[in-house]
Amino acid sequence: MARKDSVNRVCLAYSGGLDTSVILRWLIEEYDCEVVAYCADVGQEEELSGLDEKAAATGAVDCVVKDLREEFARDYVYPAIRGAAVYEGVYLLGTALARPLIAKHHVEVARATGCDAVAHGATGKGNDQIRFELGFRALAPELEVIAPWREWDLRSRTDCIVYAEKYDIPITASVAKPYSMDRNLMHVSYEGGILEDPWTAPEEEMFITTVAPELAPDEMEELVISFEKGNATALDGEALSPAELIVKLNLIAGRHGVGRVDLVENRFVGLKSRGVYETPGGTVLHAAHRAMESITMDREVMHERDRMAPRFAELIYNGFWFAPEMDYMRAAIDVSQKNVTGEVRVKLYKGNVTIQGRRSPVSLYSENLVTFEEDQGAYDQRDAGGFIRLQGLRLGAQND
After folding, report:
1. Model confidence, pTM
2. N or C end of the chain, less CB within 10 A?
């Protein structure tokens, strides 16, 4: 807990919703300080106009909105795809990838506006408090950190609404909240409320970016995705920035019902949590990227990267983006991607992504070597006998 006598100005991660609006006022009342509201646009598709007026009406001395969509796609989503980062086999890490970026700019805004503390609205049970605060410690250890959900006596959404009414905070919230939602360029996540029962199926009306696979078009759609050094650079020959490409791919894949995941995951704090996710564009990019690697990466390099991938995903999930071991991993992953260049053709149909073809100017695939037809002497099949005998030496020794 921050020392109240050491806090004069706080930079608050602010969305304008119920929780952060209440936190803004609570900081003013409890810490007797000034509050700078900071909002990161990472593609949440919310209406951000008028946010500064709303923050001012709640007591903020300033409001800073930063458009981070391109940086998010280029420097966080794309590295995760290059590293095959998938947590516990299915989660593509949309929320976890956005948090270090938000923390990075949170610190920058705090310093630029003369703040001596930062505050966030993450609860004391989740992963986000860790992701934000590890980022703060790595980038600005001199700043005090305030986490209201770990300090105040408000314990429910109803308590927050009562508090908002007491201080005339402008909100448009009700007690009923069937689930919690977080959206960014990469995905939409849902948890809590009716989803806390892992046997309860999510309601179809909940989903935003994908249609139900059974309601998707009866006609398949093909796309060609171009890659350069592991990064997607174009769709069907149209060059696009990382953010533009993800937005377009979200729309295309979403209408085919691609990218829904329902899982019970292991939070870093030790709890199991049920989450439902929509990641249409990211799902396609992961599949296409893997196909691109299949003909351009050396076998041993690919296997080493694949051994690293679960740990890479775990570090992202747990909030260690700015840790030294992450610098090492990202550097190694980038080296592995130097020849991952070419095109992949994918088919989207009823929730599925199917690879239709792949080609590359630096392909390691040799049709002449693998053909079942005459290979013109490029591969002497008799050599395989000696190879097998050598590989089997230690196995035969087990019977000695």
Report:
1. 0.94
2. C
Q: Is 180 annotated as catalytic?
A: yes
Work out the angle at residue 315's Cα, subtended by the Cα atoms of residues 314 and 319, and round it to the nearest 5 degrees.
Answer: 115
Look up 218 and say whether it is catalytic: no
DSSP state of 330: H
Active-site pick, 69, 82, 99, 131: 99
pLDDT digit string (tens) for 344-354? 999 999 999 99
What stretches of 276-382 show up as alpha helix (H) in DSSP?
280-296, 299-318, 324-336, 367-370
Q: Is 41 a catalytic residue?
A: no
Known catalytic residue: 19? yes
Catalytic residue, candidates 69, 128, 183, 273: 128
Instruction: Give the active site residue among 19, 62, 131, 360.
Output: 19
Query: Which domains can be identified in the chain, with CATH numbers?
Result: 4-69+98-176 (3.40.50.620), 181-297+339-358 (3.90.1260.10)
> Among the options 180, 330, 334, 363, which is catalytic?
180
Q: For residue range 22-32, what is the model confidence (pLDDT) as tens digits? A: 999 999 999 99
